[in-house]
Amino acid sequence: MRFARFVAFVAAFFFLASIPSNCQTSTTPAPAPAPAKPKSATTTTPKPAASPYDRTLLKPALLKDVAPASYQVKFDTSRGDFTVTVTRAWAPNGADRFYNLVKHHFYDGARIYRAVPGFVVQFGISAYPPVNAAWEKATIKDDPVTQKNLRGTLTFAKIPAPNSRTTDIFINLKDNTSLDSQGFAPFAVVDDKGINIVEMFYDQYGDSAGLDQEPMKKGGEKYIATKWPKLDTIKSASIVGAAAPAAKPVAKPASTTTAKPAPKPQQ
C-alpha cells in the first residue's frame, strides 16, 4: 500500500516537470526606441517686422498722382466719423497733395494737435518721426484762392513764404475770410453732420500744443502721448469715392458772442 502511494507521488512529480515552458505566461520585450533625428544645421532667418506705416511715404517725390475732379475722404476719429468732399478745381495742387497723402495713409494715427475754439482745428503731423522728416521740405506750389475760408472748409497751413505748404491742414470752425487775402486756399469742405464732430475735438490745451510742433514731429506719437495725452486722434483717413457735385461750406448758426482774434494757421 505504501509502495503504491510512493509510485503515484513519483509519477505526479515527473508529470509536472514535463510541462513545456511555452504553457507559462510570457512578456514581450518593448521595442527599442527609434534613434533621434539629426538636427538641421540650417538656421531660419526671422522675418523683419512689418512697418507700421506705408514705406512709400518716405519718398514724397514718388507720390504725384493727379486727384479725381471730385472725391470724398472719410475720417474715423476718437470723437466719431466725418466725411469731407474735395473739389480739385478749387485748389488743384492742394487737392492732389491731399489725395496722395490719404491714399498712402499719412494721417492714420495722427493727432488733432491744435484746436482753438471759434477759429480752427489743425492736424498734419505724422505719428512716425521718419515720415515727418521725409516730408519736412516736400512743399507744393501755391494755388490761387478761389474759395472763401468759410466754416467747415479745409485748407493747407503755410508760412508767409511762397510755396511752403507740406502736410498740415486746418478746418475752419467759423468764417475766417480774413485768411483769403493771405494765400490760404480751401480745397475741401466737411459734410453737414461732420462739422459737429470736428467741433468736439479736445481744445483745452488751447494754442499751447500747437506751439509744440517741432518736438511733436521729432518725437512722434510717443512724445505726444506723454506730453499732450488728451489730444484727439485720427484713427484712419481713407478715400471712399466720388462726391456729389454740389459741395458747399456749412453755414454757421447765428451767435451773439464775438470771438477773440487768433493766430494764423501755420506749419
How does this model look, in words?
It is a single chain. With 267 residues, the protein is an alpha+beta fold. It has a domain at 70-241: Cyclophilin. The chain contains five helices and eight strands, in the order αββαββαβββααβ. The protein has helices spanning 2-17, 92-103, 129-135, 194-198, 213-227; strands spanning 70-77, 80-87, 114-116, 120-123, 153-156, 169-172, 186-190, 234-241. An eight-stranded antiparallel sheet has the order 3-4-6-5-7-2-1-8. A hairpin with a 3-residue loop joins β3 and β4. α3 runs antiparallel to α5 (213-227). The model is unreliable at 6-27 and 253-261 (pLDDT under 50).
What are the SSEs and their pairings?
Elements: H1 2-17, E1 70-77, E2 80-87, H2 92-103, E3 114-116, E4 120-123, H3 129-135, E5 153-156, E6 169-172, E7 186-190, H4 194-198, H5 213-227, E8 234-241
Antiparallel strand pairs: 1-2, 1-8, 2-7, 3-4, 4-6, 5-6, 5-7
Order of helices and strands: HEEHEEHEEEHHE
CATH class placement of one domain: Mainly Beta
First-last Cα distance: 131 Å
CATH topological fold name of one domain = Cyclophilin
So how many helices? 5
Unreliable spans are 6-27, 253-261
Number of DSSP strand runs: 8
In terms of quaternary structure, the protein is single chain
How many strands, which pairing sense, and closed or not: the largest β-sheet?
Answer: 8 strands, antiparallel
The helix/strand class is: alpha+beta
